[in-house]
Amino acid sequence: MACGIFDRYLALLGHWNFPLQKIVTLSTICILLAAKLEQPMQPSFSRMISLLTEQEKKQISKQDLVALEQDILIRFGFDFNFPGPVDSMQRYLRLVNRDQDGTIWAICE
User: Fold this and answer.
1) pTM for this model (two decimals)
2) C-alpha angle with apex 15: 72 to 83, nearest 5 degrees?
């Protein structure tokens, strides 16, 4: 999930427009957002910063993370629905009229 957020954000923004010095900040907030979406207990900004190396801690502040999280949410339009491999397979099977065939889904389970 974090990699998907990272890739999607850079694709929307353009990787050439994103400064290399902020990659650690982007990586950290992507992991935090993924944890917020997937885990029952979300990590805090302070906890995420405490897991970084000393050099990385000097580059990142809580305000940087909050600002980047806000930018990601706005650019995504609060839409974190990513089509995964199962969704793609279901769509493909529907297109070739094989979605009613129970033998294919028996293999997947």
Assistant:
1) 0.70
2) 55
Percent of the chain whose pLDDT exceeds 90: 22
Note the pLDDT tens digit of each residue in 7-47.
Answer: 889 988 888 888 888 888 999 999 999 888 888 888 888 88
Helix (H) or strand (E) holding 36: helix 23-38
Query: CA nearest 2: which of 43, 44, 42, 30?
Result: 30
- The CA distances from residue 24 to 52, 65, 88, 96, 99, in Å, are 9, 10, 31, 43, 43
**Structure tokens, 70:** 């806000």
As given in the structure block, the two tokens for residue 32 are: 């935090």
Q: CA torsion angle for 5, 85, 77, 50 (degrees, to 10)?
A: -30
